[in-house]
Every structure is written in C-alpha cells, then in structure tokens.
Amino acid sequence: MNAITSLPSDAATQLPHPYLLFLGDTAEPGFAKTAFGVRDWAADKCVGEFSVGATVTTGLPVMTPEEAYAAGARAVLIGVANQGGLIAPSWIASFIEALEAGLDVISGLHNRLVDVPELAATAERLGRRLIDIRVPPAGLPVGSGRKRTGKRLLAVGTDCALGKKYTALALAAAFAERGVDVNFRATGQTGIMIAGGGIPMDAVVSDFEAGAAEVLSPDAAADHWDVIEGQGSLFHPAYAAVSLGLLHGSQPDVIVVCHQPGRETMLGLPDYAVPSIEETIELNLRMGRRTNPAIRCGGIAFNTSGMDAAEAEALMEAESKRLGLPVADPIRRGRAFEALVDSCLK
C-alpha cells in the first residue's frame, strides 16, 4: 500500500499529532509564523522543536526526531512560511531522519513533499506519510449563492498578514466561553494545522473559491456560529481574488475588520497604500451584500503588538469613538474585546 499522501484538508482525523515543530534555518520570526501560530493555539498538540541552524525559537524543548517520537510525537510539522513557500534542499536530510524515527511529515508549503524523490522513496520504504496540507478536496462545486442556515462571522483585513487568523480563533474561543455553539473554520495552512481540518483557499482554482467556502461552512442549526478565518484583502492587488471568493461563499452575517496601526503600505507592494478602515468596511459590506443582504460590521480588531499597553488602549478607545464601533486587540482581550464579542453576537 502506498503511504504517500497529498491530504485533502477537510478531514480533522487525518492529521497525526502531537507535533515536533521544524524551524528549518529561519532567521526572521515572520518566516516562522506557522510554528508560532500552532504553538499559540494548539499547544497541547506540540512536544518540541528542531531545526537546521534556525536562530528563532518557539520556546519549546529542543528535541531530535528520535527523542520526540519517544515523547509521543507522531509527526514533524514544518513551521516555516518562507518566501515562495519552498522546501529547501538543506531540509531533506532532517525529514529523512524524522521518517526513519517513525514520524510522518506535514507541510503547508506550496511545493509538495511527495514531489521530492528522496522523501517519496523513504516514505514508501518505511510506510510513513508525507502530508501536504495545501491540497483542496476533490470535487469542489461552483458557488451557488444559496442562502444557508446558521450564522457566520468572517475576519477581513485592510491588508495581508495582520491578524485575521488570530482574530477568528480568539472570537471562536470567546463565543464558546459564553456557551455559544461555534466552529472555527480554517482557510489557510496554519489554521488547518491548528484546527486539524479546513480548506486551503489559496490552493483552490478561482472558479471554485466561492463553492469551497460554501462547502467549508455548510447549513447549520439556527443558533450555530461558524467563525471563518479570512484570507488576503479586497484591496491587495495580488490576493484580492481569494478574498472576494471567500466573502461571497461564506455569506457572513458579521464581518470583523482586522488592521495593524502604523502599517502604511500593502505587504510586498510598497507603491500601494493601505486603505482606511472606513473604506475597508464599506467595500466588504458592499460586495458581501451580493450573497447576504443583511451583512453588517461587528467591529474592528487591531494588531497592537508593536505598542505598549497604555498606548494601545488609548488608540483603541479613540478609534472606537471615531468609528462608532468596538475596537479591540483580541490578544490583549479586556473590556474592549468583550464589547467586540457583544457586538458580534447581538
């Protein structure tokens, strides 16, 4: 039996864990965001980390694959999100070591583990799995626009990589704390690794983006909430297509706009300015009304990681008064975050 796997990412039970997080040779924390995200939101699934000379760390115990397997790990999870999403040749020996130690290997990168001949041969010989997360389920439909039962919240952004996943995870957790029937719906590789399932929206052919979002968040009980991880930004020249397909297909009843104060230009495109929060609310509501005329904005989530607590609190209070909506940092939580949760659920 062939043990090599390109995993359709909609099956939570197919991701083996606990994980040993692989940091490669990463020197910039931003390129280890997958590892940090899994550590922050799925700590119970992590036993340690290892690398080939990385200068960043998750703070987890450093282990060899053999030590991790003995400690209960069942897979190496590639925690690197590098430019181009490529598997570096210098990593291959480490993955072979992990396979020989009894671990499967999980990747969310663009090029696939199964296409690396040395890894494919080793996995085949040992009966181990190479699991590529960025493989959408087969047979995705074209979007229908049919109104579905249940309630939905979508995190949207002024730009990429500023907190949509963390916002969705924090809101889903807060809903659950209040006794709300809720699911976090992952749409990117890190979210899928945290949740154990989802659909990688940036790997879906554009014609099927909206349909994939409909599959991801199906009909549900009237009081059930799906909190959906956002992708990209309607204003980003490179990534707006996935953002619009996700918006139309998820049919959100509520959007929460994510923003990083102080960011002036779009990620990777310094000639394009970040839009205002007001523009972002208006465009998302205008486009979202196409499939849900009742869509509304529940508030704004700020990424204030670069500010001290007093500065962040003052800014969020001022912006809340200016915009007439709750403004909170989902990681700092506090009263402002509770007000945001109240607004989303009302």
Structure description:
- The chain has 346 residues and is α/β, with parallel strands linked by helices.
- It folds into two domains: 5-135, 3-Layer(aba) Sandwich (Rossmann fold); 151-345, P-loop containing nucleotide triphosphate hydrolases (Rossmann fold).
- The chain has eleven helices and 14 strands.
- It has helices spanning 33-41, 65-70, 92-100, 117-126, 164-177, 189-195, 209-216, 240-250, 277-288, 309-323, 334-345, and strands at 5-8, 19-22, 46-50, 75-78, 104-107, 130-135, 151-157, 182-185, 225-228, 254-259, 265-266, 269-273, 296-302, 327-328.
- Strands 1-6-5-4-2-3 form a six-stranded parallel beta sheet, sandwiched between helices. Strands 8-9-7-10-13-14 form a six-stranded parallel beta sheet, sandwiched between helices.
- Strand 13 (296-302), helix 10 and strand 14 form a beta-alpha-beta unit.
- It is globular, with a radius of gyration of 20 Å.
- Residues 1-13 have low confidence and may be disordered.
- It comes from Sphingosinicella microcystinivorans.
- Residues 57-136 form the D-glutamate N-acetyltransferase-like N-terminal domain.
- This is NAD-dependent epimerase/dehydratase family protein.
- Residues 142-335 form the D-glutamate N-acetyltransferase-like C-terminal domain.
Compact overview of the structure:
By secondary structure, the protein is of the alpha/beta class. The chain has 11 helices and 14 strands. A 6-stranded parallel beta sheet has the order 1-6-5-4-2-3, sandwiched between helices. Strands 8-9-7-10-13-14 form a 6-stranded parallel beta sheet, with helices on both faces. Strands 11-12 form a two-stranded antiparallel ribbon.
